[in-house]
Structure formats: structure tokens, C-alpha cells
Input
Amino acid sequence: MDLTLYVWRQSGPGAKGRLEEIEARGITADMSFLEMLDVVNEGLIKTGREPIAFDHDCREGICGMCSQVINGVPHGPQEKTTVCQLHMRRFKDGDRIYIEPWRARAFPVIKDLIVDRSALDRIVQAGGYVSVHTGGVPDANAVLVPKADADTAMDAAECIGCGACVAACPNGSAMLFTAAKVAHLAALPQGRAEAARRVCMMTEAMLKEGFGSCSNHYECQAACPKGIKVKFIAKLNREFIKAQFSKKSE
Amino acid sequence: MILDGKCPSGPLPEMWDRHRKEMKLVNPANKRKYRIAVVGTGLAGASAAATLGELGYNVDAFFYQDSARRAHSIAAQGGINAAKNYPNDGDSVARLFHDTIKGGDFRAREANVYRLAMVSNSIIDQCVAQGVPFARDYAGYLDNRSFGGAQVSRTFYARGQTGQQLLIGAYSALSRQVKAGTVALHPRSEMLDLVIVNGEAKGITVRNMVNGRLECHTADAVCLCTGGYTNVFYLSTNAMGSNVTAAYRAYKKGAFFANPCYTQIHPTCIPVTGDHQSKLTLMSESLRNDGRVWVPRIKGDRRSPGEIPEDERDYYLERKYPAFGNLAPRDISSRAAKEVCDESRGVGPGGRGVYLDFADSINRLGIDKVRERYGNLFDMYEKIADENAYRQPMRIYPAPHYAMGGLWVDYNLQSNIPGLFVLGEANFSDHGANRLGASALMQGLADGYYIIPYTIAGYLAGTKPGVVGTGHPEFIRSVEECEGTIRKLLSINGKRTANEFHRELGGLMWEHVGMARSHEGLTSVLKRIPELRAEFWENVRVPGGEADLNQELEKAGRVADFLEFAELMARDALHREESCGGHFRVEYQMPDGEAKRDDEQFCYVAGWEFKGAGTAPELHKEPLKFDNVPLAVRSYK
Ligand SMILES: Cc1cc2nc3c(=O)[nH]c(=O)nc-3n(C[C@H](O)[C@H](O)[C@H](O)COP(=O)(O)OP(=O)(O)OC[C@H]3O[C@@H](n4cnc5c(N)ncnc54)[C@H](O)[C@@H]3O)c2cc1C
Ligand code: SF4
Ligand code: FES
Output
């Protein structure tokens, strides 16, 4: 099939960007979306133009590196699917496809479709861990974890840190990402001891990084390739209130 | 030269404890004076950097992705082994050790493997304490499964995402140290060179991938944790950016490369569909626990799987290896798949595929149970292959997956260059000629959490910190060399892209240095690779500039190294005139087609030393001794 792409081109961090029209010819249904871009890039290089810069690595939907807004939707039209797992059988001959980077205040564009997501790392650095040293821990079966809790933790821990939730949110909030981490650790006995401190530190970091606040649009859940549920945001809010309460009573 | 693995003497179970007791320590107050460069933040690198940071060293962590959490360890699905023996099914440190030595086809060092088995249990404890959500049973205990040819259930797992969960655990520990100020992160940084001063590793040169600047980083010790090199085959299960560059450039600076020909071809991947294909996707081997592998009995049978009656199907693994059946080790299963496809009994496009059928399990366990176990894998399969594996069998085919070979290290994980340590898949040490399922994650974390923190102190205690600055002539020379290579690549302005060269190289390697290797094929490829390399340096086209984010330049640099490394791999494969594990030479096989080892002549680690461009590398041997597991023919019948 032949397609017309409108791709965001931006030469560098401060530069002005624009949508460029690029033809994609001879695309087959079994190509992944990124393989389609590979083919386009090979063509651009051969005709002396600069290839489109985009982030990707595992191409298995797990590393969270790929990040493109396709026709206005982060990760494109297929539910619970990252761009790298999206296949061209979702498109048809003659389609016009708009490809843009994640757009959010906290994610400045570096080049073309590549953005800087280090703000997400800094949210984790603020407290997204259990403060345990290597060594000196009890046997793995010493603390039992009810299966339901372990499953809840796992549901939340599936987050791949891609940032699609931020890109989808009208406020550019990182609430779903942060909530997933908070909920993952809060569900486990190993994470409970620091739960109050963690939720405060992470929320504070989130605001400091320039992410917007959550006003319950729930676009994040729709865009999330891992199906992270907004119920975790409610969980974060409960943890947060609990933490404020316990701070006051201290 | 005879290479010395520096293994402690005495009985295996006591070695590590005694060695730890005898090794020197760095005074706690002095630790912060030492700077350690850790390259890579996969399981090996992240666990090492976090733990060294906790101990108080100054750590710099480098990686090419935008976040440390995205290292390719994240893609591991199946699980991680440990000798916990929670299921009470007969496991022990001794058995895990024994299985690993045997699985590696007697080409690994006993002392290292024993230590690995010993620390395996601590890893699980540590990960649980970090909040890794391993699968549990209804009583709240950890669940185990049998995996990749093991006859005991020793594999811990987290819903088909074990790698991601373990890596997030290590990444959390790392993040905690970033906050504590002991670890500095260097994202989007590609190591291009190792800097050696007076024979010792004293730092690295990296390219800042955002602005293209070459940066020097001094260090009192360097840990390479840069993963495996199977992207030399172009198509593999590795991430697109996985490369040999860091290891290969260390090799060019004098580090020995050990057993480069030991590569693992994984039996259960989604088959190739066309030329546009950029990578191959693994379907976790855990699927073999409940799936049955078969092909039609008749050649060229084009019927759909459902139309082929039971007695016209060949469940060839069950037939040939009744004791292990569908769980036969990876090298054996992969070769068996190639064999049936070579006989024109393969299925799917191009006849390069075999069925992995879940119909029996669905009947026995019910569809819900199968969905619970493998749902995400079936979903992934459907996304890629557009087929529903609940209704029709999956099609799978082997794909390059893991590098057992890597930089040579001694018992301390130190290379032959003092101060250069190599961890995880990047080293050669624990898996011999074939790695067992679920043991790479174990090795990466063992190296990073439990081994390097001790052994690096043994080295640092004898060195003065901070003696070399970035103004040292060796750093200046290194930057000039890297700059030279980059400018050369950008100036060629030829007709073919780096990717085209890579694809062609991969095709050659898959054909001649893949699952079945022959004297003839290896000799021909050894002639062909230098020609392709020469063409690359005359005809590659790398657009863009050097002072910019330039993904084509990154790619070209990696392909240039693969083009040299491929030759080393083929040379190693040619020299090893035996078959063992993942290295199968068609000339050396048993009458029934099984690998035929030659312990008289080849029971050694091959460590290759770079002797300059255009000169043959020199082979050094580390003899392997088996005092605890008697050398035996590996049989899975
Ligand atoms: C699809 C898949 C599934 C797997 N499943 C399992 C499993 O179930 N169980 C199991 O035990 N094993 C499994 N393995 C194997 C296992 O995942 C790997 O061997 C292991 O994770 C490697 O870890 P590592 O830390 O050595 O390297 P990696 O995780 O590959 O990390 C490499 C690091 O080095 C950095 N790096 C690389 N080159 C450079 C450079 N030039 N400059 C700077 N940084 C660089 C990268 O940024 C990255 O941070 C699987 C492998 C694959 C590919
Ligand atoms: S919550 Fe979902 S969309 Fe947001 S970072 Fe995690 S995986 Fe990506
Ligand atoms: S490239 Fe890794 S998730 Fe898409």
C-alpha cells in the first residue's frame, strides 16, 4: 500500500518544528509501524534527505522507548499496543497518517519525534523504591503476600514508563504513571513501611517537574499500552490523604 | 599464553567464602574517593551500580537509552532460577551447579558456576525485599515452575515479565542511589573506547548522543555490563541498539575475547515474514511446558494444521527425546527444528516454521488456565502474526538470542586488563557453550549484587584513587581516534545504508556461523566478511552531522564493529573442531546427529588477543578442569 505521512520535523531542542509531508510507498500489511518508518528512512537517506529521528529499542512493547502520537492518539489506534507492536494491517492504501512526538510541558522535544522524558526518572528518584540495601534481607518466603495483593501489585507494576499517559492528558499530568508506582509498592508488605513518605515525595516531585494536575479526564487509561487502570489514581489519592492525616497527628 | 582463571583452591563449597575472607577491603571512609564507571544498566549494570553506590563509591552509570530502566534485560519473559527448593522436588545448590555445567556442555569453569548456584537464593530474597511482584500461590508463598529443560521447578517468575520486574527492582535501587548522590546517570551516552594508562583501565570515552560531543570520563575501575552481541546476525531477539561496540573496542585495547563462537539460537521465536523485518520476537520458552511441537509427517504438506490428523503429525521432540520431550534444551530443540525444515516439512511462509500446539493443554486445563498462564504471550503473538493461538497452533522458528561468549574474565570478573571488570551477558564466564533457560537473569544479578562488590574492592584496595585526569595523553589520543572514525564514516557518502550492510552481514552469519557450521562455510565466510567490510568503508552512506543527534551515525559505528567482530566469531568457530552446545560443526556429530565433543583437544576456553588490524588474533587457552562433575556425553534422551 502507499501512504502519505505528515511527520513532525524539528532539528533541535529550541528549534521551530513543522509537519513535513512524506510519501511511504510499497508498504505491506505485515510490517510493523516502525518497520514502515525504517523503509521510509532508507528512502530518505538514499535521496539525500535526513531520516526521521524516533526513539525505539526492544520493538516488543516492553522497554517503553517508542513514543509517537499517531493521528492524534499516543501509540496509535490499536488498544493496549505500543507503536512498535502496531502493524500496518491496521491501515489501508491511500491513508494519510499524522505522526507527532509526545507533547507535554515536562517532555521537551529533542529532535523530530524524540522527547526528553527524564522527568519520569526523577519522580522515581524522589521515592519510588523500597529503601533496602543489598544483603541482610529475610528469606523470600518469610513474609507471605496474599495472592490478591501480589496480583494487584503486579497489575500496577506492568507500567513500562513510556509516558503515553502524559501525552494523552489535556493537562499533561503524570498521575497514572506515578499512581502505578505508588500502588505497586503500597500493595506489598515490603513497601508499606515507607508508603506515606513515598506518596508525598513522588507527588511533590511530579508537580515540581512541570506535570499538570489530574482533573479526571481518564484519557491516560485509554492511551496506556499496558492497560494501567485509573483506579490506581484513586489509590494514590487515598494514600496521599492518609499520609497527610498521619503527618498532622505526628 | 596459558590463561589463569585465578580460582581459589580447595573444595568447591568453601571457595567463595574463603576467597571473600582473604580479599582486601577498602576502608569505608576511603570508598568515596574511588570513582567507578559502570557501562550498562541492565540487570548486571544496574545491580552493580546500585550496590557499589550503597557501599559509598562514586559511581558513573552510562547507557544508550533515555532511561536506565529500558536496558534489554527488560524483555526477559520466562523467569529466573534459584536453588531454593521451595517445591521440595529435589533441588539444591549442587544440583543447580551440576545442571548448569552439563547444560553448558562442559565448557564452563566449575568454580564460577558453583558460586553462581550458591548466591542464586540470595537474589530471590533481595528482589522480594525490593518489591518485585513474583507470582504467588493462594497461601501467599512464592510460586515456581519448571523451565527450559530443568527437571525441577526452580524458576521464579512474574507474569511473563520477569525481566522487566527484576530490572525495575534494580532500577529502583539505582534511583535511590541517584537521590543519595552516590550514582550519577549518563543517559543517551554510547561508550566508544576504553582508556588504558600504564596497563590499567582508567576510564572511557563516550559520545553524548544528544549533542554529539565526545566526553572523557576517568575512573579507578571500569565495569562493562553492555549485554550480548547476537545482533551480529542482524535479526535476533535482542533490542535494536544491542551491540558489540563497547566490548569489541575493549578487545582492541587488549582485553581478550573468549569463545565468541558460542551463541545461542532460541527455539521458540515468531518466524520471519519478509525483508523488511527488523527484529525477531521471542515467545517465552515457558510455552514449551504446555505446548507440543510438531510438523507434518509428509514433506510439503500444505494442509492447514487442523486438517492434519493425529497420525500424520510428527511430534519430533517427543519422539527423539522421550525423557525431556518438548522441554529438550535450546540448542537441541533449535537444531531439531532446522532439521525438519531442511527436510521440507516446515510450515508457514517459506516453510521455515514448526507448530507449537496448545490444543491438548486447552482440553486438559481449560482455556482459562491457559490464558492465565500465557495470556500476554498469546496476545503478543496475535499482534505480530495476526493468528489466534487458542484456535490454531502457533508457528515458531529458532532465532539468535544469547551470547555465551564475551570478554574473558577471571574468578573475580576481572579481565586480563587490571581494573576492567566485565559483568552479565558481556562476559563469557558461566554458561559454557550453551545457557540454560532462566539463568542469564540469575547471572546478571549475581554478578552485580553479590560478586563485584567484593572483588572490585580486592582490586581497588591496591590502587591509588584519582591519579589520572582527563588531560592525560591517553584520553586525548582516545578522543582523537574516535573523532577520526566518526569523520571518516560521515565523509564516505556512498550508496548503501548502514542497515543494508548489516542485513547482508547478518545473512552471511546466519547461513554459515548459525545453527550448523562447516569448515567449508566458515572458510568461505572468512573470505567474504573482509570484502564486505572493505565495501562498507567505501560505500556506506551516513547522512547528517557529528554534532547532532544522529541515529544513522550511531548505527554505522555499531555495524562497523560487527563487521570486524563477525570475522573473529567465524575464526573461533573454525578453530574449534568439535561440536559443543550452541556450537555445532557438521563434521563432528554422533551417528544419530548429536553434538560430538572432543575433550582431548578442546576442553579449554579460547581467549583471543587483538594483534592489530589485518593481523590474525592470537589464541590463548584456559584449560578447563572438571573435578566435581565428571566429563560425560550430554544426553537428553
Ligand atoms: C527476548 C529475551 C528474553 C529473555 N528471557 C530470559 C529469561 O526468561 N530468563 C533469563 O534468565 N534470561 C533471559 N534472557 C537473557 C537475559 O535477558 C539477558 O542475557 C540479560 O538480561 C542481559 O543482561 P545484561 O545486564 O548483561 O545486559 P542488558 O540488559 O542487555 O543491558 C545492556 C546495557 O548496556 C548498555 N550498553 C550497551 N552498549 C553500550 C555502549 N556501547 N555504550 C553505553 N552503554 C551501552 C545498554 O544501554 C544497557 O543498559 C532473555 C533475553 C531476551 C533478548
Ligand atoms: S501508566 Fe501506561 S501510559 Fe503511563 S507510563 Fe505507564 S505504561 Fe506508559
Ligand atoms: S520499542 Fe520498546 S516498547 Fe516499543
